[in-house]
Amino acid sequence: MNNFPRPLVVVSKCLGFDHCRYNGDMIDDPLVRRLREFVEFKPVCAEMEIGLGVPRDPIRVVVAKGEMRLAQPSTGKDFSAPMNDFCGRFLDGIGPVDGFLLKSRSPSCGTRDVKVYNETGNLLSAAQRQGFFGRAAMARFGDTAVEDEGRLRNFLIRERFLTMLLTLARFRTTAANPTMAALTQFHARHKLLLMAYSETVMRQLGRIGANPEHRPVGELFRDYGALLGRAFAAPPKYTAAINVLMHVLGYFKEGLTAEEKAFFLDALQRYRAGKVPLSVPVGIVRSWVVRFNEPYLAQQVLFQPYPEALMDISDSGKGR
Question: What are the residue ranges spanned by the domains of the chain?
């Protein structure tokens, strides 16, 4: 489980790749810096791509006559058409992608919580809160891992993002040589992980892989891939994840001491209380998988869904 594929991720260029913010700044984001070793980034600055220079007067999202516009208040210019044109061209030609890591609250890249104004310059509280490029990316690639760097300071959101990102990358590499055996093995290795996130989607994926209609393997990979991302639409429900781990505990109950069981159950309680991410109790079980050399569990992605170097329980408390 240590041979991780390199996910393909579109990233806002200002997050450590270029001094391209409106004021000439570049953001040194710690997670992006750590991800460079494991991810193939595709940096882009949508604002520079439509001809805005550095430095530049700020742009903002404005609701004008019932439409979302991308305006530059200092000049009165409207960049909606060139931005929409760029988004379409870029996303049409991007090729395979496993996720997006975009600048939070940006009028171009923001995925949520973007400031939206009316024509007189007042903030609107009830408005679509996405930037133009962020909205287009989520509309086109909503079943991939899409987040902004601000939300990823929260360990629960970060864990879901990394788990989804690496799962989609594994499927993309598996689909490069599509066979029934490869699909069956992929689903078997991800079964406990999918069960922890969404048992409903896990069962739907299982029916696709079972192929009772004897459909061509290409169709199976297409349908499986289209559904896979939906399993990670939200962090795993505590009850589902705990049920999976309690089931796994049964594999080791004869070999564990009372103290070991108590330590594990305490970790489950802390996870249920939102004090630690799922990776904490999973890490305890993973040590038992190695210790007892349990072959079925050893192949389960649940116990190392992404590189260990990216596991970090630090949490800003933001982004929830």
Answer: 8-149, 174-320
